[in-house]
TrEMBL record:
GO cellular component: plasma membrane
TM region(s), chain numbering: 34-54, 147-170, 182-208, 220-240, 261-283, 303-330, 342-362, 368-393, 414-437, 443-462
One Gene Ontology molecular-function label: nucleobase transmembrane transporter activity
UniProt-recorded name of the protein: Nitrate reductase
PANTHER family, per the entry: NCS1 FAMILY PURINE/PYRIMIDINE TRANSPORTER (PTHR30618), PURINE-URACIL PERMEASE NCS1 (PTHR30618:SF0)
Keywords for the protein's UniProt record, in alphabetical order: Membrane, Transmembrane, Transmembrane helix
Stated family: Belongs to the purine-cytosine permease (2.A.39) family.
Membrane association type: Multi-pass membrane protein
Top-rank taxon: Bacteria
Amino acid sequence: MRKGEAFDPTLYNEDLAPIPRERRNWSWVNYSTVWMGMVHNVVAYTTAAGLVAAGMSPWQALGTVAAANVILILAMWVNSIAGAKYGLPFPVLLRAAFGYRGAQVPVIIRGFVAIFWFAVQTYLGSLAVGLILGTFIPGWSSLDVSILGMGLNGWISFLIFWGLHAYVIFHGMERIKFFELWAGPLVIVAGLVLVGWAVSVAGGVAPLFDQPSRLAPGEFWPLFALSVTALVSVWSTLVLNIPDFTRFSRSQGDQMVGQAIGLPLTTIIFSFMSIAITAGSTIAFGRPISAPDQLLLAFDNPAILLIGAATILIATLSVNVAANIVSPAYDLVNLFPRRLDFVRAGLISILIGFLFVPWLWMDNPETIFAVLGYIGGALGPVAGIMIADFYLVRRRNYDLASFYDRSGQYAYRSGWNTKALIATALGLAVAFVGLVVPPLSGLLAYTWFLGLAVAFVAYAALMRSESRPAAEAEPAMEIADELG
């Protein structure tokens, strides 16, 4: 009998077990293409392009994106090492800091946010489906009969796009890996074509980036702070669950190099393209158009509309599967290990996505920066606690068996570590104090940073008496092979 078979079935199953060495086959190429597939999405495009629409010059917008991504890659690296070392997913690693029961609190929050994003991205992708169907079906626009706040044609598009997600999920993580391998590069190629158009209408690259800022003196830095927080918050969910991906890595070098290529480098290139395209739309159409679907309609060309909409569809499907389904799937498996596996949990996650009715709140796109900031503020404390626990409390060493043992060192008091919950509450309180204390409303521009920093310090201080490394009788990889 393998060791894993003796563990508590409420804490252990095949999807939650450490990945054995022979199954850790993701190379730096896989991580690069996975990130390429994730950063090329409508929200990222709209957010970067929206900086120009909000009044920044193209260079100011690009600098803002670069600053946010330097912060992001550092956070990703810091929180990805444990996953690559032990082959464990995010919800299992959380047990070390929160306890096996307490970990369910941040797991539920993280899953809630991921499914929220799934719903948003699915709605945005369904707009591309609608553009494609409208090109081929006469009278498509006449189906705009409202049902629960969305037209019948919108519902048809939404259900078709939702079904594509179900198809990819049904084939598990390996299908996801190979789908991302070609989807990310394809979107880059399509984006370069639009950049070529923007350069053509502007008469060169220089005119695109010579457009001046429209911000009044003193307006840039407040917008910069809000925008950096929003851009970081777009990926605040992945900062937490990056171990769900790095657990498959052949080595620490593979995941770190792959992420460095795929996240900051590709994001800056993609943002450069979106900013250049938006600047080109200002020249071509007299106004900055930051929404991709509206830009395609502005061309009034069926061929461009069809190719562009197909690209948006692939890009959105790519990011949604990797960023917004993998995590809640593992989260649900962690909650119900005896009843769910990855595929079932993924299908349940996308069913729950309907409940967020994204077509209703997306009618107010001007709130996107505030929404992104609040999401980051909610998840920042959990990231701070995970980092403090692994590096300061555990000294980068975990006791693998205790993750699946109700009497192990991560059991705390009946599975609850109240110190982690207190640190989380303090981080949330400081991050959102501006909502209830108007004079401090300026702090809302830094929600993710405040939540992470306060929870990090509070958790490290509260756990100071317990800061000791776990005993490692065997190398982590060998233990993972045995447990897996």
